[in-house]
Amino acid sequence: MTEEARRRQGTAYGFLAYLLWGAFPLYFHLLRPSGPWEILAHRIVWTLLLCGAVLLLRRDLGWLAELARHPRRLGGVALAGALIATNWALYTWAVLSGHVTEAALGYFLNPLVTVALGVLILREQLRPLQWAAVATGTVAAVYLTVDYGTPPWISFGLAASFATYSLLKNRLGGSLSALQSLTGESLVILPVAVVILLALQQSDGTTFLGHGTGHTLLLLSTGVATAVPLLLFAAAASRVPLSTVGLLQFLTPFLQLLSGVLLLGETVPASRWVGFGLVWLALLVLSVDMVRQVSHARVARRATGTG
Fold first, then answer.
1. Burial category of 188 from C-beta neighbours within 10 Å (exposed 0-12, middle 13-18, buried 19 and up)
2. What is the dihedral of CA 261, 219, 12, 99, to 10 degrees?
3. pLDDT above 60 (res 307)
4. Cα separations (Å) of 41 from 105, 200, 204, 230, 253?
5. What is the pLDDT of residues 248-298, one digit of tens each?
6. What percentage of residues in the chain have a pLDDT greater than 70?
7. 107 close to 99: Cβ distance less than 8 angstroms
8. Helix axes 128-148, 270-304, angle to 10 degrees
9. What's the burial of 152, exposed, middle or buried (CB within 10 Å: 0-12/13-18/19+)?
């Protein structure tokens, strides 16, 4: 396969991944009358079973013993599991409680929060356009706080939890494949899912078997819905430049915003669109910087004969 064909394939994988994530608000609405805690628990359980089955068929379970022998790496996986579970729970609650547009804003803010964490934690040096993007994003956050009358906690919570999760995954490096990583994270948070399901069973709050075969199958499908986009994303990230992945990621919150406004009946006041516009301006500046850096790096590699 030529490099050009590989990139086209990777772009298609990335587009499908972000398209599926963008459809999550509609998917989670189909899971009603399940509540966010029940959906979270099923998502953990069926994701673990699906990934575990695939790894078992591939005879790829030896890494679990290796992981157990490295407490620091295991702790990192456990923390990553806790962060992604927090993100899943908050996102599901937002969708089911009619806050899809706030959830979309959270994922628009995510790249800006990621850059900010790079400065605060990794002591990274920002380029002028990156500083401009962060400054514009900060103005947007202040404006939206004033407009809402309170900080948009859902948006900030989603952006912070996923950006921190991404940062942690970056620090863990490539010690685990995407499938192994998702399996490990699901495994360490499995006790949380078990406790949730037992509590729901005790309070007669579970919907798994009492609402028809279709509903049961939908809850079973949460494992596929979780694993497939992640694996598509991993396949895309290994085939296309970072700039392509960075630009594709904006597809998800854009589709979520459209779902909330056009399909789920949420209303966004005119004043709030100003805040969204500021966030989009910050993302545009960040995207321009990203594309410029990739272009400069490509030119430098050609000049030295390494590209």
1. buried
2. 20
3. no
4. 25, 10, 15, 18, 24
5. 888 899 999 999 999 999 998 999 899 999 999 998 998 888 778 767 767
6. 94
7. no
8. 160
9. buried
For the chain, give every domain's residue range.
3-304
- Per-residue tokens: 251: 């597809």
Q: Provide long-range contacts, Cβ within 8 A and 24+ apart, for 130-134.
A: 130/286, 130/289, 132/282, 132/285, 133/282, 133/283, 133/285, 133/286, 133/289, 134/282
Other Cβ atoms closer than 10 A to 61: 12
CA distance 214 to 194: 23
Cα separation, 261 vs 242, whole angstroms: 30
**Helix orientation angle between 178-188 and 222-237, rounded to the nearest 10 degrees:** 140
Taking the C-alpha atoms of 82, 84, 89 and 95 in order, what is their torsion angle to the nearest 10 degrees? 170
Q: What is the mean pLDDT of residues 112-133?
A: 83
Q: How far apart are CA 128 and CA 256, in angstroms?
A: 30
Taking only the tens place, the pLDDT of each residue in 10-65 is 888 889 999 999 999 999 999 999 999 999 999 999 999 999 999 999 998 899 98
pLDDT at residue 303 in the model: 66
Take residue 248 and report the two structure tokens written for it.
Answer: 């594709």
Residue 186 and residue 81 in contact, taking contact as beta carbons nearer than 8 Å: yes
Q: Is 189 left (phi over 0), alpha (psi -120 to 50) or beta?
A: alpha
Q: Output the six-digit token pair for 35.
A: 């509540």
